[in-house]
Amino acid sequence: MYSESDLDAAVTAGAISPAAAESLRAHVAAQRNTPAVDEESFRLLTGFNDIFVAVALALLLAAIGQIGAAITPAMGGAGVAVAAWLLAEYFTKRRRMALPSILLLGAFVGGVVATPIGALVALEPNYGDRVNALILAGVGLTGVAAAWAHWRRFMVPITVAAGALALTGAGVGAAFAIWPGLDDAALPLVLAAGLATFALAMRWDMSDRARTTRASDVAFWLHLAAAPLIAHPIFNMLGVFEGPVGPAIAALVLALYLGFAVVALAVDRRALLVSSLAYVLFALYELFRSAGAVELGTAFTGLIIGSALLTLSAFWQPMRRRVVTMLGEGMAMRLPPAVA
């Protein structure tokens, strides 16, 4: 299986012409009876060898981390980071393997972040809240720097999302360090970070409306990172998991989910629907249970939500055309094309 990034790289290298690449995309879209822009294609596996290599990498990196941590806590993270970078020189830079590249990115950024944490814990295991917030801000910025360096060298699409999450941690940590009494503002801060990440994802998306280059892959992972940062604070502030869910809360949750569906249709991304799905399932289940359907509450919930999502998937294109048309021509020119 070849991703849009692979086709783009092949065109850049001169292996195929731009016209041939476009013809291939059109052929695949015709076979699937859906435009390529609506498929949200991204590459996770190039073959079973990806899984084989990923398992081997996980075992090796875990062993390096454990051996290093036995020497000093910081050595474990540093060893994993160095090993992940060196392994990425082959499996990412030369072999361009998808799943191993994602694993090695996570190991590198995680190892870089874990190194100062290990050193600080070795010095003093119990810090105050303000110092912990400063540490979070510091390691978050360290993670941003690590993601930036990895992107400059390997350009794995998920790297930008990893950097955005690290920057979120740095921002929240800095806010708590400056204003220690912000406990009640944690969820709004995360929501703000999610909206900022969503805006960044849209910027990448708008740079490739046809979704034929690496920019589309970067946007996909940014949307995937932004979605839980948006959905989790909103539904938690509503207290969905804090007590019995009555008809009013259930109706509000469903209304928010419909709003998310409109946004997902407009931007042609499904991540927001997936991230908020657990809250909708729980709210609807609690509503059925409070109505007396204790034994069949789960079945009724699955029947309604499953049917709704399948209907949305089957009629995604005509529904999206209607939503984009309602937004006006100016906005439509910034979004992925709604193919007739």
Automatic annotation (TrEMBL):
The keyword Amino-acid biosynthesis does not apply. It comes from the Bacteria. The chain crosses the membrane at residues 42-64, 70-90, 102-121, 133-151, 158-179, 185-206, 218-235, 247-266, 271-288, 294-316. Keywords: Membrane, Transmembrane, Transmembrane helix. This is DUF2157 domain-containing protein. It comes from Sphingomonas bacterium.
